[in-house]
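Regression test attached.
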Amino acid sequence: MAVRQRSTRISHPPAAESRPRARRETWYSRHSRTAAQALVVLQAWVVLLAVAISAPATEGVNRRSHPTERFRHVAAADLGHLNCEAALDEACAGLAPAQQAETPAGRFWLVTVLLYALYTVIFFVCVYIIRHYFFTLNRLFRTPRQPYVDIDTAEWPPVTVLIPAHNEELVIGEILEALVDSDYPRAKLTIVPINDRSADETCKRIQAFEAEYPDVVKPYHREDGKSGKAAALQDAMASVEADIALVFDADYVPGRGLVKQLVAPFFDPEVGAVMGRVVPHNTETNLLTRLLDLERAGGYQVDQQARMNMKLVPQYGGTVGGVRKRALMSVGGWREDALAEDTDATYRLLLAGWKTVYQNRSECYEQVPDTWEPRLNQIRRWAIGHNQAAARYARRLLTSTRTNALEKLDGLLLLGVYAMSPLLLIGWMLGIVLWYLGEAKPGLIVILLVTSYCTLGNFATFFEVAAAAHLDGSRERIRLVPFISLGFLVNLFAVSRATLGQILPRRRPEELLWHKTERNHNHNGVYNNNNNTHVQRKG
Amino acid sequence: MGIGFAVLLLFAMTFGLAVLPLLPAIMEWRLPKDTSPLRVVRESEVDIRFLAHGFQAYVDSAFGALLADRRDPPRSLEDSLQDGTKYVVVGDGDLPLFSEAEQAGSVIDRLVLGRGDIRLPAGTTFLREIYAAGSVLGRERSIYRAVLAKDSIALGRESRSLRWVHAENTITAAEGCRLHGRVSADGLLVVHDGCGFERLHAPRIEFRELPGPLSSDTAERDAPTVVLRAEDLANVIEEEAGRWLVEKALDIPANVLVEADLVVAGHCRIGKGAQLAGSIKSHGDLTLADGVVIEGSAVAGLSLHIATGCRIHGPALAEREIFVGAGTVVGTELEPTSVSGNHLYIAPGALVHGTVWAHVEGRVCQVDVTAFADSATGPLA
């Protein structure tokens, strides 16, 4: 279709993703692009340097790996003249014949297997490095893709907001208040707090809202059935009449326009699920909450939005999001035995040709864990659920006819993200074992250390989090980025332990219960003195 | 220096060297400066009237009494606020009095506030906002920072608005205007040929070639009697949950009715007079021939081409360009909707109810639809 009339091009300000906040002009803001490019070059050099160091070292060790060769090397060093072949031959003659030719076939195969296992670990670590950089550079230098954010006027469809709640007396009032204040057309909005056998005042608080807003708040009380969020959602879903169901955890406080923003992508008939951005509210509590704030920023502002930009696989996160009911029901509804029902739903929808959309502007506050124990429980729970989804859907994704090659690759990498921690630990152990077997290749170990440092412990994560903080317009908090290493180490062991627990045989089958993050105060800082919420886990 | 001290010094220096890069982190941890949570947009800042409402509140608080005082209104009143902001208050229907320097440079660096209607001079740049309790009548080739009128606003030929314009009744932008930022009217918004725009909103947005009423046919049409089934099309790979999943490209024949949502992996063309009871998403270009009716939304991964006389009830989105032919109507009076794309080219004669949003550039211009009118008329598969 051609445009006949030409006219002067309108000069517009560039479409900016950054929020309209006042930003002080700093050296960093002026030179961030150059700094980012310099950082990438620097990191590339570090990796190349590691490879360069590894090559001669590997060669040398290979040559020296035989006992006789090792002895020659040591003796040569003692004698102080490496080329003195005669003296070396004389010294080596003293070795027992058995020592000279000792390479049993079993040991050879053991070393070969271990070496290839190490190669495999390094390969996967490198793949994740590349993934991290692709995402971060995409976010820094490409315009964000947000095709649905402009839909502010429409004939809004009926929507049901589900709020699974189990002992949430402290926070349930806040979210209900926020939702009834939403600018979504009242006649099209139904709020369904799902009270799942709460033993505290949750039920009373919900009933108070029901009495005040009988046309909007229609609670669903569960007295029996399977426990857990997925089971509660599945039960409540049967009574949902609207085709679009949004889900919020009880400790979230949505803004007035959030429901519209999350519903807008469903005008696209291909969209099966929508995910908004989660923003920690209790950042002022301690170092942990500040680190989690940075981590969340990296995860959403960079990872999720980059996937959206590149049309990969943004993940539905179980809260601050929604699903198209007929799409979800066509793939089996909420899976009650899934510990991460969100990841599970994402992949089932993907396999059926429904897309998940990430909306970076659809932000909502949450309370992040402010002590290490709930944080560790949270990360373990995520790891187990994610690994469960990986076991269920990795093969199906590979053979899927509804997904393209890039979606398959990204989907698999996303499924494997929690497998990287134990894999990295295995890699480190392999390096140590090979070293003591005398067949080690220190070059390989250097590569492993550098790549793991770049991928999970330091550079890539630093880069990603720093990029997210920059995109958010944050300033001083970016200085905390080195402490992310601390979180990495904790996650590494927590995730590895959780994964190991999944692999090892259990004494009794795991029972699914409510898994939630412990909290003792709400967004307004109201504390609960007789805290009766707790993380339950059996098995 | 004893050996013990030397060792201690070595350790201290090593430790210092190791900790040095962490100093900024430790400082921020122990003496936090940036701990507040990221600001989340909790109110509807995306509301197109947000800036206008903010300015209205400012006018009410700072000038409410002055504007309401009609006992003996002077022809023009000049003064400045305590913060140094200069302003001029104009009587109903008067021309504001500007200084000789202002008239010579054609640049007005004062708030202009009208107790009723305001008439503004041609070829003038207004660096501050304009407010009128009645209407604003602008003349040609003027540049406005922002304009708010309780009644209507008329922008003369080749004028420019830089940030926003809002009227509680009607806005008319004459030929060749450049409307940067937001333009919204609570009643009618008329944008003439040759205008450029970014974001428009009104219950009724008319794109016109010449002054006069729009001749769009808004009457409801009868649905086609031939119903297309999924098995009539070669590329449909799945029919589930009210949705047809189509691989590769799709041509929908003319004058058929499709009672499903469509998701097309490639380009899609819909033939003349066809009607879609659901929504459609095409990963490539989406082309609607003359007279196509879509009850739901139309979403294109690339470009969306809408020929003449089409009806789209839901949002029309494209990640690249949208071309809208004359006589096309998007949304209805009762059910306004959104049109959004990077580049929008809208022909005079088109009508939109709701919001039109061009991320990069929008333009009212003649759009050639003949190349697409007959391209999707193939027989049933």
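Expected vs. actual: identical. Confidence is low (pLDDT under 50) at residues 375-381 of chain B.
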